[in-house]
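Try it yourself: sequence plus LU4QQ7F6, in.
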Amino acid sequence: MTAECCGYPISIFFIVVNEFCERFSYYGMRAVLVLYFRYFLLWDDDLATSIYHAFVALCYLTPILGAIIADSWLGKFKTIIYLSIVYAIGQVTMAISTIHDITDANRDGTPDNFTFHIALSMLGLILIALGTGGIKPCVAAFGGDQFQEHQSRQLNTFFSVFYLCINAGSLLSTLITPVLRAQECGIHTQQQCYPLAFGVPAVLMVISLVVFIAGSGMYVKTDPEGNIMWSVCKCIGFAIKNRFRHRSSSYPKREHWMDWANEKYDKLLIAQIKMVLKVLFLYIPLPMFWTLFDQKGSRWTLQATTMSGDFVSILISTVNPILILTLVPIMDRLIFPLIQKCGLNFSPLKRMTVGMLFAAMAFVSAALVQIEIDKTLPNFPSSSESQLKVVNTYSTTLNVTISPNEHLLIESFGVQLHTSKHTYSTISCMFVNDFSLIHGEQWCEFSRKFGFGASYTFLIPSTVFSDDCESITEVEDMKPNSVHMALQIPQYFLITTGEVMFSVTGLQFSYSQAPKNMKSVLQAGWLCTNAVGNIIVLIVAELGKLPKQWAEYLLFASLLVAVSIIFSIMAYFYTYIDPAEIEAQVRKEQGLEPEEMEKETLEMEEKDEDQKNEQGVKQTKI
Ligand SMILES: C[C@H](N)C(=O)N[C@@H](CC(=O)O)C(=O)O
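Structure, out:
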């Protein structure tokens, strides 16, 4: 009997706090990762973005490893502890790799040995991916294990609270770590404080581990049931082989292709595999949702850089977790019960389909915003065009004639310039409010706000410093960004509503439809859909793009609509199951008590081993 509070097992308190700290650690580190690549390791935008997405994809692939270790070998509890240690070591390694003083022998503020920092940070990231991904399917499933059969309502609430903790951790860390990075620190020279920005997530990971261990006396710990993954693979392999052996039409068909394993494998195992395969099949279209969802961090962020609104940018990076924190309770307490009251069956798979449609609408909204932005952007020459800028320093208007076959974008400034012996220089700067031109004792000062995204040319006559500053002509080559970032809020709202419907439900669905001994495996399968989604983003980013960004957004939206239609058809044919009930039924059919069942499985395994040994002996004899 587990200790309870308000109908909930007390042990889940440690699990949700652990999740909060772990997600703080993960998202905090992620919030400054691209900046570290870009401004510390001095990688270009493309390399920084690719390594970032590759890292995220790895974080969602390693859950398979964690699930195998947990379900077949160590059990969830030990797997979480061991992999959290790996994770914490990774975070510490990452934080150390950002200390520029380690290799800054000449004390100029930049590291002298980039190879050292790159190698150390890559090692850190691999350990983090192994840790975060490895524990991910185990923590949610371990939380679920704490509930008993009569607590199914509380179990659903647990998954929502779990998701809230994820987002509270993500929100706080996304706000805090960039601020920590902006501090200055260092031994020899003061630089942006990456060690602090990565160090705090490392500390949070250690706290997460300590909290988890603190609850160890209260957890329900289910033992791993032998090498389940290996048994599953062998059973599937046997079914395929046996089916192939009996492919002739003279053999009667079986209800399910897995039934071809009946000759050798236990009925219960076959029934469990059927349940898992049914769900995994349903997962096939799901990566498309994540393909759109994960572009929040790349394409949408880039879209924001072409928009105006200084402080909104901070809000935009946190809008997703803020909306999650508000939408999850609203959906759980208001919308879903209301729909139920109206007599509508809003089943989990229907919710997920609607979630996908919301994500598609978010991309339509992004496309509309992009069209607005494009109207304000200057015309750049395409690969088949050239751009000619004519600065007319003559006092009267000049006519320019172009051969009609040539595609030239013409910009001319009717300005006067006294000398032709001038030097051009381009300066790109952020937050320019004051700008002075100084020559000896004389200077001309321009004190005003220059808009983001704008480009200006200052035409300076040779007489300016002996004459007056008025004769300097300012030309605005490119207008400042004028479409406000607040226009992105609808797309964030839509995608987050989609996330609540899709992701929170998917998490619950994966847990509820999995047999007891394969819960982590199915959680890992669920997380894998995210990894594949990220890989698709990587491929799409690497392969050519459509000439217009808005068209790309619409393409993604249409693809997701198509995928959601396919998913809804698949979902229509899916029958929800209670794995425990099916298992009990199979046991009953076999006339076995649970203990006997286990004994039989063991005997089966032993027989298998004996057969193998016998074959080995035969082969040696031959
Ligand atoms: C911060 C995101 N809104 C979020 O909730 N993410 C979840 C789901 C996921 O991306 O895997 C998480 O970090 O577990």
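One thing you can check immediately is this: Residues 406-431, 610-622 have pLDDT under 50 and may be disordered.
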